[in-house]
Recover the amino acids of this structure.
């Protein structure tokens, strides 16, 4: 049984899909997508990798998954307190381009990062600016039910009107809220109230603004995900996920709007990935101190080495990035590819599973189903790689199966024509030859021949051939 940690209940729970259709159930998965005013940094990408693993584990458990991701191209302000600039307008000014150009460019870059990291494409991508009408409708619904009020700069959600507001919060968030000295927008009634619709400031013209029943303006950031989640997955849907920074505000406010408008929870399971940090600091796009996937590639590492690095830590633990860590990840993944290329069978014939093979598979499933325990799953994989009591053919098939979760591209590894063992023996023989130790070098040649390979010495050097 698949167990997942639910932030809402603060427990690992058995995963029971909401919809049990005939055969395989269809799981609704919503993941908050990027704000496309700059490249995604490797911290953001850690969260998308966690969600990709989650999706792969659901599929491994025979569910079908409808994965919806939004592209935030309006309304995400530089501060969570409903003040500050719209990140998109800020990005456009920085690059002297239109907001629409910025959005297009960074959306494309984001999708390319996903591809490089072998992250499966969401079933649906939705842009916030394509759902403005629906967002206005939701705000009207909230207004009719008495959950909103208007101040000088926008329409706000009154969090004091909703029983149980902040149910996603753990102790940490509650303390944070209690101690928060939020710079309040004039007229805002409670610190936790949030903007549903912001008005274009008088005398200003925004690049992105729309007419509304209240005044010309743009939606607040927390409304888009509610609209896109419900319109694509219904209410409630199964799983909503994102990074832990979304617990206290963004997801809390999504839950509040859905509860107030529909009287229902937005999602059954809420899952959050912990942060990737650089030394002691959290990495923030807005602070400029970021590492991108392209930075990693420029330094000679492969994107999949980054994926491997992420797999090495549990998604609910903080991970500190270092160049040493990615170097180790690159070495490990190279080593893995080499092992796979050595054992890759020539024939595609299916292999019969053995007891030991089944034991590996069971342990692997146990690990991935224990709230996505990837470090444990990797440890099991390495045990298998090193296990000499299992045939190469069965080992290979199991590794390819495990890679359905890891996504390290093991199925693309080509078979090396010359096994490492042979190459090592040839190197040793060369050494003996240089030392003019003919007896030893002849012994090596025989050993190599017993293993099915011949050596042809020529002026161009030594050639190894299969015999
Ligand atoms: P944003 O583009 O800022 O909306 O963030 C996109 C996703 O990345 C969200 O799910 C965030 O929670 C997540 N995120 C932001 N910073 C980090 C970080 N340093 N480590 C892991 N995830 C992050
Ligand atoms: Zn969201």
């Amino acid at each position: 049984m698949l167990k997942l940690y639910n932030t809402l209940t603060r427990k690992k729970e058995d995963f029971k899909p909401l919809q049990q259709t005939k055969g395989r159930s269809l799981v609704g998965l919503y993941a908050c997508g990027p704000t496309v005013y700059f490249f995604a940094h490797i911290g953001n990408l850690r969260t998308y990798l966690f969600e990709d693993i989650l999706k792969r584990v659901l599929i491994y458990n025979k569910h079908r998954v409808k994965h919806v991701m939004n592209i935030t191209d309006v309304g995400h302000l530089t501060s969570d307190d409903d003040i500050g600039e719209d990140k998109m307008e800020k990005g456009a000014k920085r690059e002297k381009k239109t907001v629409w150009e910025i959005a297009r460019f960074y959306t494309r870059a984001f999708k390319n990062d996903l591809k490089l990291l072998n992250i499966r494409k969401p079933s649906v991508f939705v842009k916030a600016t394509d759902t403005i009408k629906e967002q206005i409708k939701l705000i009207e619904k909230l207004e009719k039910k008495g959950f909103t009020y208007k101040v000088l700069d926008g329409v706000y959600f009154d969090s004091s009107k909703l029983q149980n507001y902040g149910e996603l919060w753990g102790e940490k968030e509650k303390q944070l809220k209690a101690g928060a000295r939020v710079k309040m927008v004039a007229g805002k009634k409670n610190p936790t109230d949030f903007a549903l619709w912001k008005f274009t400031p008088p005398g200003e013209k925004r690049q992105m603004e729309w007419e509304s029943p209240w005044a010309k303006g743009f939606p607040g950031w927390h409304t888009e995900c509610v609209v896109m989640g419900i319109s694509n997955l219904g209410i409630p849907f199964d799983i909503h996920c994102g990074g832990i920074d979304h617990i206290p505000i963004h997801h809390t406010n999504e839950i509040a709007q859905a509860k107030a408008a529909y009287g229902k929870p937005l999602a059954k399971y809420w899952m959050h990935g912990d942060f990737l940090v650089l030394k002691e600091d959290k990495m923030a796009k807005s602070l400029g101190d970021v590492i991108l996937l392209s930075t990693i590639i420029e330094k000679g590492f492969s994107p999949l080495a980054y994926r491997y690095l992420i797999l090495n830590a549990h998604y609910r633990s903080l991970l500190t990035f270092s160049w040493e860590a990615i170097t180790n990840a690159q070495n490990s993944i190279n080593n893995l590819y080499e092992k796979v290329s050595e054992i890759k069978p020539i024939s595609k014939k299916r292999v019969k599973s053995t007891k030991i093979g089944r034991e590996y598979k069971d342990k692997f499933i146990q690990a991935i189903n224990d709230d996505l325990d990837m470090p444990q799953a990797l440890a099991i994989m390495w045990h298998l790689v090193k296990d000499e009591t299992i045939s190469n053919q069965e080992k290979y098939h199991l590794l390819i199966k495990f890679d359905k979760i890891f996504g390290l591209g093991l199925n693309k590894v080509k078979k090396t024509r010359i096994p490492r063992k042979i190459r090592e023996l040839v190197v040793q023989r060369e050494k003996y030859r240089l030392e003019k130790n003919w007896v030893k070098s002849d012994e090596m040649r025989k050993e190599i021949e017993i293993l099915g390979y011949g050596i042809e010495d020529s002026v161009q050097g030594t050639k190894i051939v299969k015999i």
